[in-house]
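Question (not urgent): is this output format expected?
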Amino acid sequence: ENLQCSEGTCRCEPVLQLTYMAQKAGRWKRVSTYGGKLAENATQGTSRELLVHSMLNVEAAGYPILLSVYDEILCEVPDNFGSLEEFKEIMGAKPAWAKDWPVVVTTWEGGRYKR
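Got this back:
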């Protein structure tokens, strides 16, 4: 660190930084962030909101959720219950605030989970 800067006697222009307090190594520390990290967090949070909306809808339709992994949900139903088409339609129902968003749903059916 430049001693003149810490004393306030340098001629450096201040640089704006966005900082927040976070737990790092078991202690609270001030950390800085940047636009890319903020955009990533907003995107991930919004994606989760869409997934939770779908999770509530499929459970209400009788598809019990066993597992969710990132952007997937896994349901187990009897052989004669529902269909992939119905499940895809339920999953694709978006909340009103995202009704025009280009969200794509893919489905898969099998005897065992695979990634």
